[in-house]
Design goal:
With 150 residues, the protein is mostly helical. It has helices at residues 4-8, 11-14, 19-36, 46-52, 57-73, 88-91, 116-126, 129-132, 137-149. Helix 5 crosses helix 7 (116-126) and helix 5 packs antiparallel against helix 9.
Length: 150
């Protein structure tokens, strides 16, 4: 309860960086999980995260971006964000399987791949349809959390 709020606060903003930059925080998070469970310092951390039912720093980033995309998809954000993303059917008129998916922006540099314009559609399109079609935000969060903890 002492560390988790610091890792989750504005995670979708500050954790949009290279994995190597996040590895220090991830190592500290794994050390904290081992201390909480009173495990050996060499113990594998994935089962410990599952046992405690908490997300690691990378899963937290996915969780928060998916919540943002849910709010966008259901028009729960301020009007400023109304034209931030387009579906594939808005880009072209072809009837394809992925016509209702969000169009992913072209990224010329790796730096742009960390932005919400790229990560948002990428994460949203990778979620199962049974999660993205939920109408209640709390149900969405619960199902998404369960999906990420698997």
């Amino acid at each position: 309860s002492l560390i988790y709020p610091y890792i989750t606060y504005c995670n979708s903003t500050w954790s949009s960086t290279y994995v190597t930059n996040l590895n220090r925080i991830y190592c500290l998070q794994k050390r904290a999980v081992r201390a909480i469970t009173n495990s050996d310092y060499r113990a594998h951390s994935a089962p410990l995260f599952s046992k405690l039912e908490i997300l690691d720093i990378f899963q937290i980033n996915t969780f928060q971006i998916a919540k943002f995309m849910y709010s966008y998809h259901n028009s729960l954000l301020p009007p400023l964000f109304s034209n931030l993303f387009n579906t594939n059917s808005q880009i072209h008129n072809y009837s394809t399987r992925k016509a209702n998916n969000y169009h992913m922006h072209h990224c010329r540099t790796n730096l742009k791949k960390f932005t919400i314009l790229y990560q948002g559609p990428k994460i949203w399109n990778s979620l199962p349809t049974k999660i993205t079609t939920l109408l209640n935000f709390s149900n969405f969060k619960n199902e998404l959390l369960e999906f990420l903890l698997k």
